[in-house]
Structure formats: structure tokens, C-alpha cells
Specification:
35% helix, single chain, alpha+beta, 3 domains, two-stranded antiparallel ribbon, 6 helices, 5 strands
Length: 225
């Protein structure tokens, strides 16, 4: 038996002296009895461990568990198994290929972004979480033009007043057709959810290329490697 298990119960001091026992044998009995409640309620550092799903963990008291609850709501301190649940509480979808550090960072930044909901800056900040190349949003107040592609219900409306249209410009760092398709769907889902109800939009995806005879800007429409 180690010295921790023979340590006196801290609850003993709360009892009147008459309950502490008049002899050593009675005192030890009271201490052991009180340590049962102390272990359950406030915990005792007696190095006792239990095995849960193959992992050994310390047996904590109820008050210790309650005191640890706040850490679960801070992304930097929450256990990684709790991160997905935490993201669902704030309406955020985490990408499976993100690292644990990235997931924590996104959750930490999303609340200030939510305060800008309904604004151009807020939507840009939100989209830039998911788009690695970069996203910018600009207003499009130009009328319908003949010879250009227009999609009814997206950037064109027939009859009535012209809608408020904005353009989502996306720059992808990797010219991968599958990545472009996945990114377009991701952006569309986010914009449909976050945009003001009376607005319409168009998505432009730019893949960095370099062509002789045209202007190219490194980091904007051109990558060097």
C-alpha cells in the first residue's frame, strides 16, 4: 500500500471531534469511510486508474469533471474527438483532409466571421477558409449583355426589376479538373447558405496559367515552380 492511499481524508476536518474517534482504530475506520465519498465527489490523487476502450485513465471526482467542462468549448484546449461535435454546434463543416491544427484554427476564427454575416467582407472571409488559392467578391451592376453566358436564376432574371448580382472570383492554386469541380460545389453550397436572400451571384474560377504574349502576374494568375 503506497503512502497516497494511507493519507488522511480531507473531509475529516469537517466532522466534529466526537466523530473522529477516540482511538486510532476508530479514526482509521472513519477516514476510510470518508475517502469513499471524497473519491467520488472531489477526487483523491491516489494513482488509481481504470481502463476505457483499451486506454488507462485517471479516476476523477465529480467536482473535477465539472471544473474541466469549460475546456471542451475552447478549440485550443478541447480534445480532438470533441472538435467535430463543437463545429456542428456553430454550424461549421470541417473538411476531412484538414489537420487537427487547421480545424482548431477555423473554429477559433469562425465566430468573428459570423458577426459579419450578410456583408461582402464576411462572405469573403468565410470562403477563404475553404479556398486555398484566394477568393474575392465584387459587385456586378452591369445589365444583361448579348453574347455572354447567362443562367436564369443565377445571374439573370426574366421580368421585373434587375436583381442585385455579385461575382465570386476564385483563384485555385492547382489546375486539377476534379479539384475545380469540388471547389465549385463547396463554394456554391456556402454562398447559397450565407448570401442575402434577395441577391444573385456568379462564380468565376481562375486557374493560374502563363501564356506568351499576355500579361501574367505571379501569385495572381501565374505560378512559378
Amino acid at each position: 500500500m503506497n503512502n497516497l492511499s494511507t493519507a488522511k481524508s480531507s473531509y475529516l476536518k469537517f466532522l466534529p471531534s466526537i466523530y473522529r474517534g477516540t482511538d486510532e482504530e476508530t479514526a482509521v475506520l472513519f477516514e476510510r469511510f470518508l475517502k469513499i465519498f471524497e473519491k467520488v465527489l472531489t477526487g483523491i490523487d491516489d494513482e488509481v486508474e481504470i481502463e476505457i476502450e483499451g486506454k488507462k485513465t485517471k479516476v476523477s471526482g465529480i467536482s473535477e469533471i465539472i471544473d474541466s467542462i469549460p475546456k471542451y468549448f475552447y478549440p485550443d484546449n478541447a480534445p480532438i474527438d470533441f472538435i467535430d461535435w463543437l463545429s456542428k454546434c456553430i454550424g461549421l463543416v470541417l473538411k476531412e483532409d484538414w489537420s487537427d491544427t487547421k480545424k482548431r484554427e477555423v473554429i477559433r476564427k469562425i465566430i468573428p466571421i459570423y458577426r459579419m454575416r450578410g456583408t461582402k467582407k464576411g462572405l469573403e472571409e468565410y470562403l477563404n477558409i475553404y479556398v486555398t488559392g484566394g477568393v474575392s467578391i465584387k459587385d456586378n451592376l452591369a445589365p444583361l449583355q448579348i453574347g455572354t453566358t447567362s443562367t436564369v436564376g443565377v445571374d439573370t432574371i426574366i421580368g421585373g426589376l434587375p436583381p442585385y448580382v455579385f461575382i465570386v472570383d476564385i483563384i485555385l492554386a492547382v489546375p486539377d479538373p476534379k479539384a475545380i469541380q469540388n471547389m465549385q460545389k463547396t463554394v456554391k453550397d456556402i454562398v447559397d447558405k450565407e448570401k442575402p436572400a434577395h441577391t444573385y451571384y456568379r462564380i468565376n474560377i481562375t486557374v493560374p496559367t502563363m501564356r506568351i504574349g499576355y500579361f501574367s502576374h505571379v501569385g495572381i494568375d501565374t505560378l512559378l515552380w
